[in-house]
Amino acid sequence: MIEFRPVRLEDRAAIERFTLPSDIRNCDLAFANMFCWQTVYRSSWAVVEGFLVVRFHIGGGTRIGYMQPVGEGDFTRIVPALEADARAYGQRLRLIGLTDQGRDLLRRSCPGAFAFHSDRASEDYIYRADELRELPGRRYQPKRNHINRFTAACPDFRYEELTPDRFAECMTLERQWRRTHEGHASELCAEQRAMQLAFDHFSELGLRGGCLYVGERLAAFTYGSAVNDHTFVTHVEKADTAFEGAFTVINKLFAEHLPPQFTLVNREEDLGIEGLRHAKLSYHPAELLHKFAAIRLDPDEAACKALWMKVFGDGDEFVDTFLMRYYDRRRMLTAQCEGRTAAMLHILPFDTELGRTSYIYGVATDPEFRNRGLASQLMEQALQLCDEQGDDAVFLIPTPGREWLRGFYGRFGFAGSLPAAFRTPDGFDFGTGDPAADLAMLRLRNPAAPLPGQLICTYRQEHA
């Protein structure tokens, strides 16, 4: 096992020796974020063969993740050490926050060993600092209009540096905002606890911030820190919504007061919140920073991926998304020949107008092992399982353009041609994306049940 240690204030110089000179702009690698959120993520760090490695608990849960190692050269040489560390906790290796370059490097160095996925909600918004300061051109005219309305309504506004004597009123403004928008403020949430830690150790964390006042009333505040020598991260930005345009004004003024060395500003992710996404996009980011997750595939997953790509021709992105979001070994049936996975199918849980429904998905046989009845064996096993678990309906979608498959599936009691549409937590489409082309064949427990005009398939989360 690697000797990791908790992130402490006295570790800042040792950690920033790696992060500040790097080109990595991921907000999660800002030392202030590591320290202030450690009560949730339990972050710890180590240096392994010249690379900084940060280990944390994903979402504050039990699963362990490792940030992309930071250092000079090829970090993939320490992957075996990280795998061994993860195994010591009974887990597979999960690398989090990979850049595009990091993903490509890992894919080349360990072909077929990992699945990769990037969540749009976790992508960082990177802006050019000079554009935030100047708001130039026609596309920023709406922002300049907001500022003009604010300055006309509040001519006595002023900008002040965020200093310790202002921390208490900042926390008060945050609690008032949370009470108004979320209906509670009696107990500190995780973000508020992180803010309190930031205020308790503001200078030690290298934080800087600003306040916007209207008269003597605090209208907005913000603060952040450096993630590398040229990228500043805005960790928090709060405003009293009674002052229209306060967010726009504090954003611009804070950018104006940043040291010129910071040519880029990272305003962190949008968490999939529609209003926050709209607001961040309205500032025209120069980059949406991918933060890929990579999971070490076990032998069954690797075999599934290899067979899938061989039979269906889908690319890494599609297959990896399926493996990381929807694959479950308990729902995959396989046939083995000559020590290899020769055929497979997946039984996926959905709810439809017909009730509890299973989708038989990804039926595939390796071309080297066809005409041996392997798919037929798996279909019989799958239907027996569906009957045992009390499904009201089972459906599948024959590959468009292969009409002979309808005859094959018809032998197992499937019939019909019903347009199907999918609803999943992340928008993943188990069809072609066109319901008119995704024509489902059905096998019903009650053959007399009335059929809808379209099969709306909502993925059903199931937990062990």
Give the helix/strand class. Answer: alpha+beta
The number of domains is 3
Instruction: Please indicate the percent range of residues in DSSP E strands (runs of 2 or more).
Output: 25-35%
Say what oligomer this is: single chain
CATH homologous superfamily identity of the largest domain = Gcn5-related N-acetyltransferase (GNAT)
Count the beta strands: 21
Instruction: Characterize the overall form.
Output: globular
| CATH 2nd-level architecture of the largest domain | 3-Layer(aba) Sandwich
- Give helix % range: 25-40%
Low-confidence stretches: none
Description of the structure:
The chain is of the alpha+beta class. The chain has helices at residues 12-19, 31-36, 38-41, 79-88, 100-109, 129-134, 141-153, 167-182, 190-200, 246-256, 274-281, 299-312, 316-325, 374-388, 404-410; strands at 5-6, 44-48, 51-57, 64-67, 94-98, 114-118, 124-128, 157-161, 208-214, 217-228, 231-239, 264-266, 287-289, 292-296, 332-337, 340-352, 355-365, 393-396, 415-423, 439-444, 455-459. It has three domains: 5-121, Gcn5-related N-acetyltransferase (GNAT) (Aminopeptidase); 124-268, Aminopeptidase, CATH 3.40.630; 298-459, Gcn5-related N-acetyltransferase (GNAT) (Aminopeptidase). The chain has a seven-stranded mixed beta sheet with strand order 1-2-3-4-5-14-6, sandwiched between helices. Strands 8-9-10-11-12-7-13 form a seven-stranded mixed beta sheet. Strand 4 (64-67), helix 4 (79-88) and strand 5 (94-98) form a beta-alpha-beta unit. Helix 8 runs antiparallel to helix 9 (190-200) and helix 12 crosses helix 13 (316-325).
